[in-house]
Design brief:
With 587 residues, this protein is an alpha/beta fold. The protein is 33% helix and 22% strand. An 8-stranded antiparallel beta sheet has the order 3-2-4-1-10-9-11-15, with helices on one face. Strand 7 and strand 8 form a beta hairpin. The protein starts with a strand and ends in an 18-residue tail after the last helix. It binds 6-O-phosphono-alpha-D-glucopyranose (G6P). The site of 6-O-phosphono-alpha-D-glucopyranose (G6P) has 16 residues, from helix 9. The site of 6-O-phosphono-alpha-D-glucopyranose has 16 residues, from helix 9.
């Protein structure tokens, strides 16, 4: 998604801004720009494509500036639509969506103003310029009252010596250092040990000068709040010797799992006892990979505990009038804790009277602030846009929750801790998938097949594959294949079959026979050695056996690696897939 950086201090702003934008690249974007005040005059450089294209910005002088990476929503990716947008000496960068942009634009046009882009954001510069009567903060506050939708804003004024910021439903963090201040939409862009960070809340504004960061409420009253000192762990991540963050993050799965397992004791000491004793119904709301974690949790909790679990795509939950029981425990799963649809679904669940448990990797995210109960996974920062280690971390937490539900009901289920030593082993055993890449890179379509928990893993495998190879892939229930999709099977459609449940493995192999008979090459991921020798199997990954209901934690590892190896084979950048964003803060 879009990224914001801003700097005011003694240094030249442009290198600081460009460096900040590089650190936000992992969020996904398609154009970039910066505006610097050079002796009070606004200078703007905007380009389509990567931050590297902003080379001309290096020559900009001046110690105050704002920058932006844009992920197109309103208007095509182009230099014209890139931010900052400038109107009458006001420069604005914006994350989010201005929902009433069309109406506001019409008002501006009626005043005889002209627009240079197709974006919803440009109208913000017009409103601020219009509201300006000598004080930028008051103008931004007045303009913000006119806006509906979501926004994080950083604003400069020609001749000014400040940056003014605003936040509504889109993250924004200001930070104060020695004689300099920063603003960004995400911590890595501004983090340096010892800086004091101020996380803006909805409806708050900030004024940054070289000396200080000050926060204001929507009436312009000063808010007294101590900033938090940034720690080492929050600094920009390092790729080390790895070619890509995604590969490094797959190797970090064992640690992510270890840091995301919770004991029954933990649940007891952190206020979960009553909910875990009483919960009869569970709803899970999430998007993308987090949705697949929810499906895996459903498979495990229903299989092992017979507690009904419904899993909703957050975007569907919020608009399809779900029939919600007020006594259901609603688990909102989100790596970032900032996904707009998941936040809205969690809010709706609260309004229906449900207790909301937030499961997130970001302790200071918006989701954590709106939840009744909180589980923070310890995956560490995940830079690759396509989620990897955060998936296994979510499963570790959700399987821990399953074990805790059992504990509080005096039932017994296998311990998810047993999975921990098997994660590293699974990464090592998956090395064979590198050899599969040429076949998958040439595919017309790819199927991932399984039943039960294996099907949940297949869905995540196909999502990963699509995200970074740009090739069509489908996760499919093995038993459903012959009701339609089998029509696609031929020698150009490699099939990955998953088999981790003894009761279902032979049934899944029936689907393997069916696709093999139509010429499809078959690749098997299983824990059963006997299946690997079957003549239909071109190649296999044999993983350690575990509780079948928990097996997606292991079985998804070779699928993540297969997507990675195929993307690299195709010369795609697996860390920054086209059109996708790490954290989707607009609906
Ligand atoms: C984006 C990312 C996915 C992620 C999804 C949900 O689409 O590219 O990798 O699974 O958002 O994100 P969340 O932060 O809510 O888990």
């Amino acid at each position: 998604m879009c990224g914001i950086v801003g700097y005011i201090g003694k240094r030249r702003a442009s290198p600081v801004l460009l460096d900040g934008l590089k650190k936000l690249e992992y969020r996904g974007y398609d154009s970039a720009g910066i505006a610097v005040l050079d002796q009070g005059i606004l200078r703007v450089v905007k380009r389509q494509g990567r931050v590297e294209e902003l080379g001309a910005a290096h020559s900009l002088d001046g110690c105050i500036g704002i920058g932006h990476t844009r992920w197109a929503t309103h208007g095509a990716p182009s230099a014209r639509n890139a931010h900052p947008h400038v109107f009458r000496g006001i420069a604005v960068v914006h994350n989010g969506i201005i929902e009433n942009a069309a109406a506001l634009r019409a008002l501006c046009l009626a005043r005889g103003e002209t627009f240079l882009s197709d974006t919803d954001s440009e109208v913000v510069a017009h409103l601020i310029a219009h509201a300006f009567c000598g004080d930028l903060l008051s103008a931004v506050i007045r303009a913000a009252r006119e806006l509906t939708g979501s926004f994080a804003l950083a604003v400069l004024r020609e001749g000014g010596e400040e940056i003014v910021c605003a936040r509504k439903k889109s993250p924004l963090i200001a930070a104060a250092g020695e004689g300099e201040s920063f603003v960004a939409s995400d911590i890595p862009a501004i983090a340096a040990s010892g800086r004091r960070a101020y996380i803006l809340q909805d409806g708050e504004f900030a004024r940054l000068t070289a000396e200080d960061v000050q926060l204001y409420d929507e009436n312009g009253a000063l808010i007294a709040r101590e900033g938090v000192v940034l720690e080492e762990g929050e600094l920009a991540p390092d790729r080390g010797t790895y070619a890509h963050f995604m590969r490094k993050e797959i190797d970090e799965i064992p640690r992510a799992v270890q840091n995301s397992l919770f004991s029954a004791d933990y649940f007891q000491k952190n206020g979960f006892s009553e909910v875990l004793c009483q919960t009869e119904y569970i709803d899970i709301v999430a998007c993308g990979t987090a949705y697949h974690s929810g499906l895996c949790a459903k498979a495990a909790i229903e299989e092992l505990l017979r507690i009904p679990v419904r899993v909703f795509l957050a975007s569907e939950y919020r608009y399809t009038r779900p029939i919600v029981r007020g006594d259901a425990l609603t688990i909102a799963v989100s790596q970032s804790g900032e996904t707009a649809d998941t936040l809205a679904a969690a809010q709706l669940a609260k309004e229906k009277g449900c207790k909301v448990l937030a499961l997130t990797n970001c302790a200071r995210s918006t989701l954590t602030r709106m939840s009744d109960l909180l589980l923070v996974t310890g995956a560490g920062r995940e830079v690759g846009v396509a989620a990897t280690k955060s998936f296994q971390a979510q499963l570790a937490a959700l399987y821990s929750l399953c074990a805790a539900l059992a504990y509080f009901r005096k039932k017994r289920v296998p311990s998810p801790k047993d999975l921990l030593p098997l994660c590293g082993q699974s990464i090592r055993e998956s090395a064979a998938v590198a050899g599969w890449a040429p076949c998958f890179a040439a595919a017309r379509n790819v199927f991932f097949l399984g039943r039960g928990a294996d099907r949940c893993a297949a869905l995540e495998g196909s999502l990963k594959f699509k995200e970074i190879t740009y090739l069509p892939a489908e996760g499919y229930a093995a038993g459903e294949l012959k009701h339609g999709a089998l029509a696609l099977a031929d020698e150009t459609t490699p099939v990955v079959a998953l088999a981790f449940d003894e009761r279902l493995a032979e049934k899944t192999m029936n689907a393997v026979h069916e696709v093999y008979a139509r010429g499809a090459p078959v690749f098997l991921v299983t824990c059963f050695p006997a299946l690997c020798g079957q003549k239909e199997v071109s190649s296999f990954v044999l993983l350690p056996a575990c509780e079948p209901a928990f097996s997606p934690m292991l079985s998804v590892i070779p699928l993540q690696l297969l997507a990675y190896e195929t993307a690299v084979f195709l010369k795609n950048d697996p860390d920054k897939p086209r059109n996708l964003a790490k954290s989707v803060t607009v609906e």
